[in-house]
Design brief:
371 residues; alpha+beta; Aminopeptidase; Elongation Factor Tu (Ef-tu), domain 3; 2 domains; 9-stranded mixed beta sheet; 6-stranded antiparallel beta sheet; 9 helices; binds zinc ion
Length: 371
């Protein structure tokens, strides 16, 4: 209960102050939030992950040799080529957002969502179109009858064709002159915000936190001491159908696939704790069951005991959503999903606790070294 109340205060404070008076603490050198912040502030809507891939590559330890497959997944391998076992850790680089569908004659943009989210989250928000010549500012106008709706009946729908982006230009030619083209990705301005204590928030904590955990583990590994072949995959297009993972499952055949991704927790004041309850700040979570996978209880027990032996806090539970590892059982590899607990999933204000991320990185490393 304490955790829940604390979280509520944190989130309200973040919204009310809007960064105006909340001084951000300086990032701890080498701390997990400094990596997370760099990755979150880099846009990477599904199918447009290039900038995130470049950032991750720059953050790899010097020994790591990175390969990019035909689909765009970034892969790093460590340990003996014919090790005792092959483990594949996978975290996705992409995030939900919009893609430009078409430019109208009046210069406004028709858009289509990439991934699943409530489109009302973008209503009345500033966005950036990440065009070839550079970022172009835009706004998502609120639905036309929002004034009347406040006083009268239900507002009109805000989805599909009702969502558009205005750039301040008055013609298609003017929008094109800014470099905007069909297919360009659109996000809100990417800003990681530190909150009270060790909480932080931003759009695409899912799954830049997973990418951060993999990077932390890689930076801590001594490749020569590994007895397993350990592969780290930073995947594309998870949010639009696990497409990057699908391609990997056909080319890499691990003994165990370990997805590192969000645990959508009910640790918030408006939700009941009967389902998906993992407390922010109390450690990484093993996703025993989610919408895409049921993990073998023996594997779960093994992770729990490894974590306890390693002195790491650990939680486990059931939640919604799928994970990249769920495409591997079809090819013979069981799927284990490891997470950090979050609230407000797929919104612009996903919240994470830094200690959970530190410990998730340590857990990935522990499994890589001792499985
Ligand atoms: Zn995710």
């Amino acid at each position: 209960m304490k955790g829940r109340r604390r979280c509520a205060v944190v989130v309200c404070a973040g919204l009310a102050l809007g960064g105006e008076t909340m001084a951000a603490r300086p990032a701890r050198e080498g701390g997990s939030f400094s990596i997370l912040e760099t990755l979150i502030n880099t846009p990477g809507v599904s199918t447009r992950e290039q900038a995130v891939r470049d950032r991750i590559r720059a953050l790899l330890p010097s020994w790591a040799k990175a390969d990019v497959d035909a689909k765009g997944n970034l892969l790093v391998a460590a340990g003996p080529e014919h090790g005792a076992r092959t483990l594949l850790f996978i975290a996705h680089m992409d995030e939900t957002g919009y893609l430009v569908k078409a430019i109208r004659d009046d210069g406004s943009l028709e858009v289509r969502p990439a991934g699943g989210f409530f489109e009302t989250l973008y209503e009345g928000q500033v966005v950036l179109v990440h065009a070839a010549k550079g970022d172009v500012g835009g706004v998502v106008p609120p639905r036309p009858n929002y004034f009347e709706a406040a006083a009268a009946e239900a507002p009109s729908a805000f989805a599909g064709d009702a969502v558009r982006v205005e750039l301040g230009v008055a013609s298609r030619q003017a929008a094109e002159a800014l470099g905007v083209a069909a297919g360009d990705p659109i996000t809100i301005p990417k800003v990681f915000q530190r909150l009270y204590g060790s909480f932080g928030s931003g759009r695409a904590v899912d799954d830049r936190a997973g990418c951060t955990a993999l990077l932390l583990a890689l930076r801590g590994l001594e490749p020569k001491t590994l007895r397993n072949r350990v592969m780290f995959a930073f995947s594309v297009e998870e949010e639009i159908g696990l497409n990057g993972a699908q391609a990997l499952a056909q080319s890499v055949h691990p003994d165990l696939a370990i997805a590192v991704d969000t645990f959508v927790s009910s640790d918030s004041p408006l939700e009941r704790d009967a389902f998906a309850h993992a407390v922010l700040g109390k450690g990484p979570v093993v996703r025993a069951i989610d919408s895409s996978n049921i993990t073998d209880p023996a594997i779960i027990d093994r992770v729990l005991s490894l974590a306890r032996q390693g002195g790491l806090p650990i939680q486990y539970g059931l939640t919604r959503g799928g994970n990249d590892g769920s495409v591997f059982p079809e090819f013979g590899a069981p799927d284990l999903a490891l997470s950090w607990p979050t609230v407000h999933s797929h919104s612009p204000v996903e919240v994470i606790h830094e200690r959970d991320l530190d410990n998730l990185g340590a857990l990935v490393r522990l499994i890589a070294e001792r499985w």
